[in-house]
Amino acid sequence: MSDAATDTASPTGLALPEAPTTIGSPLPGADGPAAPPLQIDVEPAALRVWHNTAMRFQVLPRPGEAARWQRFVWHFEDGSQPVAGDSVLHLFAESVTDRHISLEAFERSGARIVVSKRLPIERLLVTPVDGPALTEQALPKARAGRLLLVGQGQAPQLPPLFAAVADAGVVAVVAVGAADWAETVRSAAERGLPRAAVLALDDAVDAPGGGPDGVAAGGVTGATTAQARPALLRVLRAAEGAVATLPDSGALVIADIAIVPFDSRPWTVTEPALAALRRDLRLAAAWPALVVLGPRPLAALIDGEAVADRAYRVYEHALRERAVAMVSTASGVAYDGRYGGLAAVGVGKARPDGCARLAGSDRCQPGTATLLEVHEGGARAFHLRAPDFESWLDGDDLPTSVGRYRRDLRPAGR
């Protein structure tokens, strides 16, 4: 994966670049037989603001597997040299934001994996000066059309979700996942959101090597060959919000939103596919709100994830045509931030598979659906929290940085 190599590889024995992504196996669960092979314990739990902070790091292998590992190398991402050992001390100089560290672990068999850990900066207590703090969340009034992206879940979750966003300005629902899930969403939307269009996004990515079997990096099964692969984005129902297809293009227009699908399911993206993306982006640039929608992210959101092939070229083309946001779905985690000059949004699942965990985080996300508002000036995302979908992820649920992503710290209701 030509351009993705800079996002996934880290040289052995050298300090990792700023905000590295990770390699190795995904981390599907918090405990039990599906627990990750290694966890990182840190003390104290947070960095002090504008103070030097001494921290102790210890690697915790899965129970009964300590003999599997030969050595561990720690990378502190602050310009210092790597340090070897299963328990180490490190002093971080005056911190003003979260940090990331990485652990390079070598098995006796010769294999190697890298896991990461986010070190949060302490959150200082804020006391309102004009009364008690508000504890209830309410969606702000829509300033533009909104897309509701719903990853794989169960049918009973859909009525409360659609009820929660009934007055939220949803112009289209995007069902993310297998064909049967898309049909379930379409059927429920007939009653719950009758005026919204319904789209289906098939995001089953290929396994390494492009074969039809096996599990791809990120934990998603690649179930079809390129020849038999279903369409990436399909219109299931246009409803009252008519869906227009741009001539000789895979791009769709709903209200003022142009959606350009980018098929990052294959392990390798061909030059004709990139040429088609450039053409679609140029056509869609005539609309004020342009979104690029695809399975794999531009940079890893979870440990061990394979990112979109030619990721940086995709980013450059989207930036040149003034795209508002890049939306990815295959990671199975919810996140929104910035990737360089673009908003980047990761879509979770209504019912996660195991522990949906961002890279560097120990926190498992609940089920979510993402409400995305895009307009000419930018984008804002609300990752609505199951089961009632009346509140959304915020604060410690969405760290200020994940790998190459940086989150906008302004309130979600801006």
Note poorly predicted spans: 1-34, 211-226, 410-414
The helix tally amounts to: 5
How helical, in percent, are the residues?
10-25%
What's the N-to-C terminus distance? 38 Å
Which overall shape is indicated by the principal axes computed on the Cα atoms? globular
How many β-strand stretches?
Answer: 24
Mean pLDDT reading: 82
| Major beta sheet, strand line-up | 14-15-16-17-18-20-19
Walk me through the structure:
The protein has 414 residues and is mainly beta. Helix content is 12%, strand content 31%. The protein contains 5 helices and 24 strands. It has a 7-stranded mixed β-sheet. A 6-stranded mixed β-sheet has the order 13-10-9-8-21-22. Strand 9, helix 3 and strand 10 (197-201) form a beta-alpha-beta unit. Helix 2 (158-164) crosses helix 3 and helix 4 runs parallel beside helix 5 (311-320).
Secondary structure topology:
Blueprint: H1 5-8, E1 38-43, E2 53-61, E3 69-75, E4 83-84, E5 87-92, E6 99-107, E7 112-119, E8 146-150, H2 158-164, E9 170-176, H3 179-192, E10 197-201, E11 215-216, E12 220-221, E13 233-237, E14 243-245, E15 252-254, E16 257-261, H4 271-284, E17 289-294, H5 311-320, E18 325-332, E19 335-339, E20 342-348, E21 368-375, E22 378-385, E23 401-402, E24 405-406
Parallel strand pairs: 8-9, 9-10, 16-17, 17-18, 18-20
Antiparallel strand pairs: 1-2, 2-5, 3-4, 3-6, 6-7, 8-21, 10-13, 11-12, 14-15, 15-16, 19-20, 21-22, 23-24
Helix pairs in contact: 2-3, 4-5
